[in-house]
Predict the 3D structure of the following.
Amino acid sequence: MVDICKSFPGVKALENVNLKLKCGTVHALMGENGAGKSTLMKVLMGMYVPDSGKIIYDGREISRYSQGQAIGMGITMVHQELSYIPHMTIAENMFLGREILKNGIIDRTAMCEKAKELLARVGVSLDPKVLMKDLSVSERQMVEIAKCVSYNAKIVIMDEPTSAITDKEVDQLFAVLNDLKAKGVAIVYISHKMDEVLKISDEVTILRDGTFIDTFPTENIDIDQIIVAMVGRELSQVYPEKNNEIGEQVFEVKGLKREGVFHDISFSLRKGEILGFAGLMGAGRTEIMRAIYGIDKLDEGEIYVRGEQITIRNPGDAIKNKIGLVNEDRKGVGLVLPMSIKKNLTLSNLNKYFNGIVVGNKKEAELADKMMQMLAIKAPSKEQLVKNLSGGNQQKVVLGKLLLDEAEILIMDEPTRGIDVGAKAEIYKLICELAEEGKAVIVVSSEMPELLGLCDRIIVLHEGEMMGEVQREDFDQETLMKWAFAQ
Amino acid sequence: MFQNLDAKSNMLKRNDAKSLLSKYGILIALVVLIVVLSIATPNFLQVKNFLNVFRQISISAILAIGATFVVLTGGIDLSLGAVVAITGVSAAMFAHPGEYPIVVPVLVGIGVGVLFGLFIGVIVAKANVASFIVTLGVTTIARGGALLIADGRPVSNLDPAFNWIGNGEIGGAEGQIGFPVMILIMLAVFLIVWFVLNKTKYGRYVYAIGGNEDAAYASGVKVDRVKMSVYVICSGLAGLAGVMQAARIEVGQPSIGVGYELDAIAAVVIGGTSLSGGVGTVVGTLIGALIIGFINNGLDLLNVSSYYQQIIKGLIIIGAVLLDVKTKQKR
């Protein structure tokens, strides 16, 4: 791809971007959110027609092609946001649009066999007759990868393929990628996870703000160099220095249980403390937090805030007890996308700040301005709809909601999922500052370095059970991983 | 990221311009329509004709304003027409001359509407049944109920004081043009609803639930209650419309109101409210109702057969939705 340019009304998404893919290599594509990675890939997939520039494939110049033609040419993509039909089986999903026919009728047996074979190739043993909706997120992701591989692709684009799968599955994925490489397939690998990129890729191309920065051979570059190229400035340190003082106990749960999801969950939390929850997908971390916050029902267990037992029947009760939750699913549960920044910030506070029935516009505006400034939310105005913000800024709005709630116990479930390095560092800093101010913070994360960098204490879960607990001075990634795998 | 801020804010400005257009596009459409009709028909641009149009749309505008609440939460109410019939009949039964003060039939009409709204709301919010199905069922319940209580016949012989609600005019001495009561009621409803949706917590919650129900719940909003209440408001306003309808035609007619819900929903959609919820304004709804009213009026004045009128109206509704979808895709 040479000198690709693409503009959308009012914004240049890509400006003279070059990308050279070689057969049998893994090419990592990196850049902050909004750098133009997805747009570039959509051009490659034929979803967008570039305004100018050339795409040369196999020595031939091809200018315009449709998505269907792209698949025909062997260009396929594993999407970041999975696209599947929940009420169809794995096999039906995998062969959607290219069903195997026998005398004009769908040949289910052949499709199931073929699907099983493809799944085995990526190292998962799933029954192809199972409905997609009954799979876990990571299983769905693996099915998607298997589907992609099945197209006899020459170019495979993987957009954040590991965002929802476990470390063990990442290893399987990498084995598949190596297998594809050996067969001469060119792979574009988009990921925010540095260690993965360094491990799997042969070359790294970095984009920033829609412009092409450079392509490096992976062996000649290290994490710091990548970050500098991506952000265009030095990141002094991703994790801030910790100066929080741990005070008295403010929160405790005893024997929490939700049938079939988690059981015997007991822990306590002190003022100014950052407590981490580690574990694999499906370990029950998110579910525990949702239950504490009142989104899901608890079957058993007691919750104490400042020594007093409380009952939480719904999120309203949690908010009243100064418990706040940053949901892992920012768009699904965290924000009302078609509403403005201001209205999202104050949504859970309307009762507290505004007496009577009228929403006080002036006070609300002041609060929103204060929050935007404090959190450095980048937007032209507080009236901007949150759906138009980048992931990092959206996450800041979610945090702002919590701060306006004056929550004392902050539960943050994957607070940095899907946001870029720069915004991550800002969020880490904010979390540490909150702890310094004396808030009690729980951080749930799938990224081990994040927990090691931020937390004072980490609890590891495995299949809904507490495996162990470590203090900061004893942090050791290996032990934590062993517990997470229950070994 | 920082260097990009300029580019981003430019982009956002453009978006603002676009959202301005999509915000006022409907108003522009109304103005264009008025200009075209005033050129095409000599009798169009007269105060009398305008008041006439406003009076004609009063009932459908009130229904549409009520439906705006429901549509904003992502629901739909198909029972409006039938609720107009049963509430009109119920009100008429209490409106015979010399029996009760006219406030009684008015409250009976609205009250019956509220009861239907509660019924719909409880099933939709608590049992999580799609509003489409519930209100479809309620349509035949209400229609059957109207025929049953009226014994299949129009309820006539109504108090002139009651009929004043539908036919009365304020001012308008001999030979002068008066201001119809129906329009006053409609404007009052509009203003109250505008205030509720834009200035109160309740209004904010309605938008939040339509925008993202899960996020609203997680923010501590009592989603069930708000969802229930929108059906109560919608059907309650349908009750008011039923009273006005009965007063206008001076009988409680159990067979009236067929298809009213479609005009109401069309006005809501033409007015820019998204059928998936969370986006829309009551100002848009009023303009939507006016557009439908002016089209009907203009086609009448142009002597277009009512058969064609229906076809044209249908095409305009589809066109409005297409336009809405298109502008959304571009963003």
The mean pLDDT of chain A is 84. Residues 45 and 70 of chain A are 6 Å apart (CA to CA). The first strand of chain A starts at residue 2 and ends at 8. Chain A has two domains: 2-231, 249-484.
